Amino acid sequence: MSNDVIQFLQQRRSVVTKKMLPEAPTDSDLEQIISCGLRVPDHANVQPWKLVVIQGDARKQFDEEVILKAALASSNEPLSEAVVQLESQRMQRSGTVIAVLCSFVLPHKIPVWEQQLSAGAVCSHLLIAAQSLDYAAQWITEWPAYDPLVITALGGDPASDRIAGFIHIGKKQDQPDERKRPVREEKVSYWHGIA
Ligand SMILES: Cc1cc2nc3c(=O)[nH]c(=O)nc-3n(C[C@H](O)[C@H](O)[C@H](O)COP(=O)(O)O)c2cc1C
After folding, report:
1. Do the domain assignments include residue 191?
2. Contact status, residue 161 vs residue 102, Cβ threshold 8 Å
3. What CATH number does the domain containing 100 carry?
4. Ligand 1 center from residue 180 Cα (angstroms)
5. For the chain, what is the domain count?
């Protein structure tokens, strides 16, 4: 039986940031993407995540005042011109970035691992929703996801919060080529009882 969702999931692909145009989704599409991102499996309804949207002029400000400063702070030597160029453009590679912050609820009967998995589900849903609307989208971490200044700038506490990902959304230029996919037999087995 054919099913649009299955067909889409079997063909969907991420578009790397260097291949997307930095054009933001429409407001109504972004609202839909975010609402899909918030509607994820979440054991005991802990909601251990926060989304921060960076778009428009805020991308440049975030690059220059957060990313570049964090890069400078973590380097023992002056940054080369090429590195300054790279770091001062990081968020501007796409039109909209949704930072997904995992703010663990602790102590809680739901283990941290499960709270992390739910934050990952938020990222997946955002990505899939954006791709289903034919945007170019990629889930990225890179070094800023692990940087305390970046986590703080996003409203998190570097001592306890983690960045699950930055979902970059832009405009497609070309259809992406397929990438290497897992060999099914190496990843899937059926349990037939204890031998
Ligand atoms: C948690 C996580 C972090 C990732 N971080 C990066 C990254 O920093 N840089 C990168 O090039 N790809 C990163 N990726 C991989 C891409 O987003 C993506 O998985 C890959 O390009 C293929 O995706 P597709 O199956 O959607 O086509 C990350 C993926 C995950 C799940």
Report:
1. no
2. yes
3. 3.40.109.10
4. 13
5. 1
pTM: 0.97
Amino acid at 133: L
Whether 8 is covered by a domain: the verdict is no
Distance 195 CA to ligand 1 centre (A): 38
Tell me how far CA of residue 193 lies from CA of 189, 190, in angstroms.
12, 9
Directed axis angle between helix 4-11 and helix 112-132, to 10°? 100
Residue 112 located in a structural domain: yes
Q: Which residues contact ligand 1 via a Cβ below 6 A?
A: 13-14, 138-142, 165, 179
Structural domain including 46 reads: 13-173
State how far the Cα of 99 lies from the Cα of 121, in Å rounded to an integer: 13
| Pairwise CA distance, residues 105 & 117, whole Å | 13
What pLDDT band is residue 195 in, cutting at 50, 70 and 90? confident
- Mutate-to-test residue for ligand 1 from 118, 132, 138, highest number of ligand atoms within 8 A of CB: 138
What values do phi and psi take at 24, rounded to 5?
-80, 150
6-50 residue pLDDT tens = 999 999 999 999 999 999 999 999 999 999 999 999 999 999 999
